[in-house]
Amino acid sequence: TPGSSPRNLLDMDTFSKSDPVVVLFVQVSGSSEWKEFGRTEVIDNTLNPDFVRKFVLDYYFEEKQNLRFDVVSQHSFGAQDFLGQAFVALGEVIGSQRGRLERPLTGVPGKRCGTILLLAEELSNCRDIVTMQLCANKLDKKDFFGKSDPFLVFYRSNEDGTFTICHKTEVVKNTLNPVWQPFTIPVRALCNGDYDRTVKIDVYDWDRDGSHDFIGEFATSYRELSRAQSQFTVYEVLNPRKKCKKKKYVNSGTVTLLSFSVESEFTFVDYIRGGTQLNFTVAIDFTASNGLPSQPTSLHYASPYQLSAYALALKAVGEIIQDYDSDKLFPAYGFGAKVPPDGKISHQFPLNNNVENPSCAGIEGVLESYLQSLRTVQLYGPTNFAPVINQVAGTAAQVTDGSQYHVLLIITDGVISDMLQTKEAIVTASSLPMSIIIVGVGPAEFEAMEELDGDEVRLSSRGRYAERDIVQFVPFRDYVDDSGNQVLSMARLAKDVLAEIPEQLLSYMKTRDIKPRQADP
């Protein structure tokens, strides 16, 4: 929810100060069209307004969400004066220190329009996770030959009085005094964030044919369950039908809540606001199979009218990630070429030709160095990924406290030559703060890349399994817009390749028990 506070606005009113209002426009993805999203309240007679009304937006790390803030002065008779505007991506606000970003207002020729301060915070829609354990005593015997096989079913109540199933325990066989395993459930799933809403729990006796017998039920709420942190809570299990029929009916047993604990789940935004930096590294395939860069059939061919597939993939991913990297310096390498002066084959040569410092300034700097390299190196082979993966892994291993996370983008035209070494490198890298994105360009078959992706089967090397899935592979051809709209192609590609990054970052932090640093209030 970005809030806004313009400062030192232009004074357009002859007799008093301006009466400003901020209008937020959101750019439609993959197009140049802007749509009005909402307006703040009007604040009368001030050049330094602090607006109260917030804009609540859905945030997607993997999309470039362009925003435009227009500041206008509203008159009582309906007319308005334009005081200036600011363009910003939502990711820039979230990626800035403590989620605060100040921008100059522009758009009135020859005038200084003041500045706008944007603040973003995440709405914490109840992120707590509960772990609890229950046991039961003296449940009704339902099976003819043995005791019961009890299990529990949890339901949350809905606004309209109906119930939705939200958890089932495992079945404990042949006992009237079962102890169930502890289980974990999000508070949202249990009660939709409403602590006093009814949670209904049914006790069943499991039957192989699926016609489970109802033993009884009891009701509670999240608030009541949470009291069990200091004491055991015992619930009577009641069967309404038995209660009606039998005068002496007491209950069908009891269920005891043995333990109940709550943990907060952290989000990607928590870590970014706590200062975690995303470091972006690029590696580009300079093997001969790409074709001579001067020929229009080459995958590296850049016509005056449109970017090559390599440049498009680089821009699509880089322009989003750069918002989360404060120094905007990106190491960029090539692989599979003969490099001057002596024509040695290299699998990690710096595109800017500076071995001491391979970083380029901004995505534009990477593109410039890439085009420069195409003119100076000789495309060759083979296609080796391991050297550049190990290079980034070496850097990632130096800082593992959660303050730095590395994303390596490899753009390639195809068949990988060092599969065994690459698998070994990825398995090693899977315990480090890094993710790897592979974009395949051109018409080749990319089966080997699918194996590296590890979505279906966890990647392994010499009997060692990857600690987490850190590779995302996509073929660029799946994202090319038929009408030739490159902006749309880039938006589609970025959406898919970046969607897994927040989860991969969280999985690293979680396995290392790293909590986000608290941003200063």
Summarize the structure.
The protein has 521 residues and is α+β, with helices and mostly antiparallel strands. Helix content is 21%, strand content 31%.
**Counted beta strands:** 27
What is the CATH fold-level name of the largest domain? Rossmann fold
Helix-strand makeup class: alpha+beta
Strand content: 25-35%
Write down the overall geometry. Answer: flat
On the 0 to 100 scale, the average pLDDT is 91
CATH superfamily placement of the largest domain: von Willebrand factor, type A domain
Largest sheet data: 7 strands, mixed
Based on CA atoms alone, the radius of gyration comes out at: 30 Å
- Domain count: the total is 3
Cα(first) to Cα(last) distance is: 16 Å
Question: Helix fraction?
Answer: 10-25%
Shape-level CATH architecture of the largest domain: 3-Layer(aba) Sandwich
Q: Mind telling me the CATH class of the largest domain?
A: Alpha Beta
Output the number of helix runs: 12
Low-confidence stretches: none
GO molecular function, one term: calcium-dependent phospholipid binding
Family: Belongs to the copine family.
Keywords: Calcium, Metal-binding, Repeat
InterPro entries: C2_dom (IPR000008), C2_domain_sf (IPR035892), C2B_Copine (IPR037768), Copine (IPR045052), Copine_C (IPR010734), VWF_A (IPR002035), vWFA_dom_sf (IPR036465)
What does this structure look like?
- GO terms for molecular function: calcium-dependent phospholipid binding; metal ion binding.
- It comes from Oreocharis arfaki.
- One of its GO terms (cellular component) is plasma membrane.
- This is CPNE9 protein.
- This protein has 521 residues and is of the alpha+beta class.
- Helices cover 21% and strands 31% of the residues.
- It has helices spanning 90-95, 187-191, 222-226, 240-245, 268-273, 309-321, 362-376, 386-396, 419-429, 447-453, 486-498, 501-511; strands at residues 3-7, 20-27, 34-39, 66-74, 80-89, 100-104, 115-119, 128-137, 150-157, 163-168, 183-186, 198-205, 213-221, 233-236, 254-264, 277-285, 329-335, 337-339, 344-346, 349-350, 359-361, 378-379, 404-412, 434-440, 460-461, 464-465, 471-475.
- Strands 16, 17, 20, 21, 23, 24 and 27 form a seven-stranded mixed sheet that branches.
- 37% of the residues are buried.
- The mean pLDDT is 91.
